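Can't attach files on this board, so I'm pasting raw text. These are the components:
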Amino acid sequence: MRVRRFIERPRVFALLLIAPALIFFFVWNIIPVLTLIGVSFYNYSMVTGMPPRYIGLGNYEDIVYSFRLWESFGRTLSWVVVTVGIETVLGIAIGILFWGSVRLPGRRLALTLLFTPMLMTPLAAGIFFRLMYEPSIGIINYVTRWAGLGTFSFLSDRSLAFAAVVFVDVWMWTPFMVLITLAALGSVPKAELEAAEVDRLPWWRRLVTVVLPHAKFILMIGILLRTIESFKTMDLVFNMTGGGPGTTTELVALTLWRRAFEAFNLGWSSALAFILLLMAIAFTSIFLFVLNLRRRQQEREASA
Amino acid sequence: MNGSRRLQQSAYHLGLWLVAIIFFLPIFWVVLNAFKSRRDILAVPPQLAFTPTLDNFRDLFARETFAPYMTASVTMSVAAVLIAIAVAFLASYSFSRFKPRGTDFLMFLLLSVRMVPAAAVVIPIYMMYNLVGWREDWLGMTLFYAMFSIPFSVWILKGFIDGVSERYDETALVNGGSRFHVVFKVILPQVKPGLVASFIFNLIFVWNDFLFSFMLGGRTTSMIPVLLSTGLYADGGVDWPFISALTGIYVLPPVIVVFLFQRFLLVGMTFGTVRGEV
Amino acid sequence: MSTRTSLWTWSRLSSRLALCLLLGAVMALSTSVAQEAHPLEGESIDMTILGIGGWVPSSLGAEMANDLFKPFALEEYGYDVTFTFDAAPFAALFQRAAASLATRSNEYNIIISDSQWLGALSEPGWIVNVDEIIEEHPELDIEWYSEIVGVGYQEYPMYSGIRWGFPQAGDVVVMFVRRDMLHDEAERAAFLEEHGRELPYDYEDFLEMSYGEFEDIAAFFTRPDEGLYGHAFQYSREYDFLSMWMYPFMFSLGGDIGDFEDENRVYGILNSEVNARAMEINRAWQQYMPPGAINFGIAEIIDLFTAGQVFSAQQWAAVGPAMIPEDLPEEFDVMVVPPPGLIQDDGSFNRLYNVGGQPWVINAFNTPEQMRVAIDFMRWWYLPETQMEYARRGGSPSDAATLNHPDYEDMKPWNRAFKFMLQDDNARDFYREPTYAQLLSTQQEAWHAFASGEIDDAMNTLEWIACEQQKILFDSGASEIRPPAECRQVRLR
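---
Top answer:
Structure tokens for the assembled complex are below.
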């Protein structure tokens, strides 16, 4: 009984419930991150057979001077902006289109088909799009030839490769933004919508004044999640282009993978990984700050 | 409803289906390939009329690598996500009701770990697992995936629990229920959409993961995406029949799950702001 | 360097002669010992081979292990062994192996490694030094067809005489040519009119063929409107694909890629005018290839050639069975010849290609039982009849006895060219430093950028690679030579 009463104390109970999560967090996050930081100060390669050698900030210095890497950072940045941008716009558009489709015959099946691309293994998507993009036997070129547009070497032409990979990512993840949009639109209170209808507001006014304020929060989370995933993209390009032609589709996650697990240069890779972690934390905090700011503002408005 | 209105409605519905089909088309093409011979897959012009064959699937099931990889995929992803949801649910309840100091900070830290490219996460985990011998180990892999699934589950579930009025808790406690009773009997049933949504959402990521499985998994603990990569080539180039059949089979379970639990998924993605139909 | 090489050859030959005399006696002795009582008699053992996915010689090795070695071991030694084969593509195999070996795992007992991984696998102590095994089992000191076989597939460092593996598959670049097109009367007449000389007719006509001469032929057969192109070889950024077709141009022109036997110097050797010229020639060949050449790898070349879209293609001899499969259309008459060479500045013809191929290596963390089976397996693998069977199935042995066998050349269409290209005059191998993967991906990235037209200055590209590679070697402690100060200014552009 005493044990039970002890557990029932709010503070104890709160801690008890969080404990498993904290253990996970400690073992799989804190320890690894500390290891990562530690190793990043060493010249440590798994394959040279040499013991790790302390080199201070040597790895970081190397990264700062690595121009190719900064190009790769820049490319990753434009990758994130372009893919997330297109997916958001397209996803919201299709989501609005599907809004109020309750009477659509076979709606559940239609939505499932629409969501399927994001369920496909990215690695497989990369492999198959390589085949579809193939200039002589690929089906996409068959269509373009049929339409009289000629043959395109989508993945080997420097001016097309980046766009071709963006296209695949957009195909895969626009459905996710559709899902988020549907959820966001669903969160708009029915009463307010009906009121707007009674007021005979034009559709775009309805969108801006009624829908957006409510849907914003979920949409923002959706965009945040997409940004996160987009920043990490690697599986997709891994088999589709391998970063080529030249370095046209070399994203920073791919560079890191190469250094870490093709070359097994773990010291240098840890340094880069730590930099990426800091960037991630910085980005997430900015994003959440903005999100919370709006939320607080909304709450203030609501209470006022 | 008059005629032109009905026509408009039909056109609208047709348009919606068209959008869905356009997105599905590439998958359909892959699935179609799974029923073609290698020669038909690579044929120019593309063969729409072909003799379907089940040979690719027969070959796939006969491969000695298929069963262990598939077993690993199913058991590890389901176990990992379930563990993650259990852990996340408890933590979210605590975050939501007791609001311990540092809640916001911890929630934020949880998320930022998800933000780093996989290779960055796997470097220290790989070194750590080497040290303690958890590589190539089922439990080691599963717990890792569980860790990976916790952040989003917490985010989704906290929203849902926030949406359940605290009156429920108070009433149950006043009536003499234990706190565990409140958590499991009162709150748990009310956040079902959130549980299902976090299950599906995390399953998609674990199910399709390649990098972690490739680096941390061994011969019996690697999942199908690794087989897609290592079995890519056969004598004479890319093994298209094998890859097509495998991809076709592998995309099926998540599709079925999404079809069955679509309602929950849509509600779940509102992060608890909506409790009814979406 | 040539004097050193010939000295080596001499000393090795003489030692080998002495060994050969001893061999007969020792072999008789060791087999009789083995027959008495094998320590593993009555046991059953599982072994796993990790090999290259979709690679004929690798899968043949695994196939023969179960088909032939299993009954052999049962009868000869009295134990029952079962082999499992696990595979990964070239680009992923080293990761798969290293990730496992770093945990001191004996998950993979025997590994078919690329020769360039010998350094990375041996320095951390993951694989067995086979010198002791060879000393114990002298029948494993085999006379190879050429010096490059031993040096390329066994030694790290190269030419040190320290051995880490056994040649599993020898491999060289050969050229697959459509003889039916060459023999077509109308084509011959048209070519004669256009160029004032005959199209080559048979194997011998390709022996002294330079890229300059061959270019006319490739251009002649490049007819995009008919869906036919003159030539194809690899430019892909994956793994070493592009490098393996960049090196032949450099080597044949007389260029070099660094001194990896002595002080590990790259800067000042790789960045030479002659190599820059080789890069230009290499890049220009895309005009005679089907669209998308910049992404051609092993698989793409097979698909294009067997689909009849190219007149000729360079390819590894090891995938001969896939280049000339049994279900080729009837009109296909394929001839396999040595690939073209280049004319050096002094007017001499030179053809120097890189060898491919893989050694078997043995996991150092094997249990004594697994080690024993691995050694038994190696001894069986190099039995003359095993090697002959390997050749018969389309594999690529590289021992002198098999290759010099009177039946060998006619066994497969590519055997003659294979043998020709494996001669020391035509073949060499490249670095196998532990940092191999990093050295390689540096040059792959830069050369791919050049070949795709992303950058245009060949000399600057070489400078950049040389700087980066020198830095990698210096940082990893493999070289005392620092990259020169001007490297800070060099950028890939």
